[in-house]
Design goal:
Elements (H helix, E strand, L loop, with lengths): L6 H12 L3 H24 L2 H4 L6 E7 L2 E6 L11 E4 L10 E3 L2 E2 H7 L4 E5 L12 H20 L4 E6 L1 H12 L4 E7 L7 H4 L7 H8 L2 H11 L4 H9 L3 H15 L3 H15 L6 H13 L9 E2 L2 E2 L9 E6 L22 E6 L5 H4 L1 H4 L2 H11 L2
Parallel strand pairs: 3-6, 3-7, 7-8, 8-11, 11-12
Antiparallel strand pairs: 1-2, 2-6, 4-5, 9-10
Helix pairs in contact: 4-16, 5-6, 9-13
Length: 380
């Protein structure tokens, strides 16, 4: 999405519009036609290799059901002895952490000397509709952690969670603190009612939509659909800014047709956006009721598998990175939560941009990976 125009830019465009003549309009139309023709030719010539995303060399080290655990191949002879495990969200695919070679979080961490693993949650099918949050936290995530602990010979590993994966990681660190050496969270909702105390214009739509549903609405939705279709989940995100969605495929796309790097970046992003997995129904039921509606996580009242997720059990160092322009997870739902944890080593770091821009935005790229590398490195 293009950044908003300032007053000077708006005045400049208005002045340009007033000075349009028939001759200038004809020239502009001819230039646009030529640009479109060249762009269409370029699109037709692009290969699958050029459009590939998540190409970091890696090896599958464990699998169960649709879940895969990958180890990225180290690029230094002696990686940092404590591995990093990255857990992404269920609502999108892991490729965002390695969208392009020059905009890759995992590649930057590898270049900093770390041993990096990540989870691919896969594509849940009809059988997975019954999986709950605890199946992911105490099941798949715990088994991934144990695999890495055995391979590395370490009692505790560095755990990094992103968005929904950050919530899973927070729950895991509270339930299995002995297995987590350091916990890093990025664009993670922790106080799901933070937007009520500190509203943010243009953000928190998902919070409002979820709280407007009755518990019966939630039950009916999950009982009818089983799992939430990926296309429906994607549509919900698009409806947060429908005008931007319309202009993206018209003016925004036309603007980058003659710039190879920007065009490839646009198409790779669209490939990631289009790959929306279905969302397991029981996870969604608990996510909407216990988190969005009742805000149980930050109050240490969330129960998983008969055990209470008490954030005071999180006594290891915690790094909390939030995006200052996040419209999916309002800033007030992420920051200012350190007093709820049991650790005395809590750090908050803001990064410029939005929810996804945290990982691919130019300004955020200069902050995210260096901050993580320095923070993990300083804590052994």
């Amino acid at each position: 999405m293009s950044p908003p125009l300032d007053q000077a830019q708006l005045l400049s465009r208005a002045a340009a519009a007033l000075s349009i003549t028939a001759e200038s309009a004809a020239k502009e139309l001819e230039a646009a036609r030529g640009k479109l023709a060249r762009g269409l030719k370029k699109l037709a010539e692009l290969s699958e290799d050029e459009l590939a995303i998540a190409t970091v060399p890696r090896d599958e080290v464990w699998r169960e059901d649709m879940v895969r655990l990958y180890r990225c191949r180290p690029v230094v002879d002696k990686p940092h002895p404590v591995p990093i495990l990255i857990a992404y969200a269920l609502v999108g695919r892991f490729q965002m952490i390695d969208l392009e070679a020059d905009r890759s979080l995992v590649r930057k961490l590898l270049a900093s000397g770390f041993d990096v693993y990540f989870i691919d949650w896969g594509l849940p099918g009809r059988a997975q509709r019954w999986l709950g949050i605890d199946d992911y936290v105490s099941g798949y995530l715990d088994r991934c952690v144990d695999v890495i602990r055995r391979r590395s010979g370490r009692d505790g590993i560095n755990l990094m969670g992103i968005c929904q994966g950050g919530v899973f990681s927070t729950c895991y660190a509270a339930l299995f603190p002995q297995k987590v050496r350091n916990l890093a969270l990025t664009v993670t909702p922790l106080d799901f009612h933070g937007d009520r105390k500190e509203p943010q214009v243009g953000a928190g739509y998902m919070n409002g939509w979820a709280r407007s549903m009755t518990t019966q609405d939630v039950d009916d939705f999950v009982d009818v659909y089983g799992s939430a279709p990926g296309a429906l989940v994607g549509f919900a995100f698009l409806m947060m800014n429908p005008v931007s969605h319309l202009t993206k495929y018209s003016t925004d796309l036309i603007d980058v047709l003659d710039d190879d790097a920007k065009l490839l970046g646009f198409l790779r992003m669209e490939r990631w956006i289009a790959d929306r997995p279905d969302h397991p129904g029981e996870v969604l039921r608990q996510w909407l009721k216990d988190l969005y509606q009742e805000n149980k996580l930050i109050r240490s009242r969330l129960v998983l598998g008969g055990r209470t997720v008490d954030l005071r059990n999180i006594t290891m160092p915690v790094l909390n990175i939030y995006a200052t322009g996040d419209t999916i997870v309002p800033v007030s739902c992420s920051r200012g939560v350190g007093n709820h944890f049991g650790t005395d080593d809590y750090t908050e770091v803001p990064v410029p941009g939005g929810h996804i821009g945290t990982f691919v935005g130019g300004k955020a790229q200069k902050i995210l990976a260096p901050t993580l590398a320095e923070w993990f490195g300083a804590r052994g």
